[in-house]
Amino acid sequence: MTTPPADREILTYADFGRSMRELAQAIVDDGYEVDVVLSIARGGLLIGGALGYALGVKNCSVMNVEFYTGVDERLEMPVMLPPTPKAIDLSGMKVLIADDVADTGRTLELVHEFCRDHVAESRTAVIYEKPHSIIKPDYAWKRTDAWIDFPWSVEPPVTRSA
């Protein structure tokens, strides 16, 4: 096995499983009773599903937000993509917003703002938090300033075999 570059954080699938159990335990120990897990797609899809299972929450929803366009390349501001959940469907609920990383924090901020006036309470859970994030997640497994290689996104998309 080669040593990863010093400027990279490498998450394995085993680390992912451990991080989800530890985040779920932190949420439970904090007394937060989640009604719905709201995953930010795409990075938060696996996180939201895993936390839903670990917390015993079957009510899961997705919000599509585009921000990153490549390695350390992003749009000026995150953009919500359709379809977006109807705010009425979240009304009065305790929402757990799930994403892979709080890097700039702008994506979490956008989704948190969307939820703010409609839900009883919303909290955020991420695997990684960067020190410069404008949002401090309620739950973060690890803090890092390095670029993160997630096991589901380090390989290029699959293409048709010749």
TrEMBL record:
Keywords: Glycosyltransferase, Transferase. SUPFAM superfamilies: PRTase-like. This is Phosphoribosyltransferase. PANTHER family: HYPOXANTHINE PHOSPHORIBOSYLTRANSFERASE (PTHR43363), HYPOXANTHINE-GUANINE PHOSPHORIBOSYLTRANSFERASE (PTHR43363:SF1). The keyword Iron does not apply. It comes from the Bacteria. One of its GO terms (molecular function) is glycosyltransferase activity. Residues 14-155 form the Phosphoribosyltransferase domain. CDD domains: PRTases_typeI.
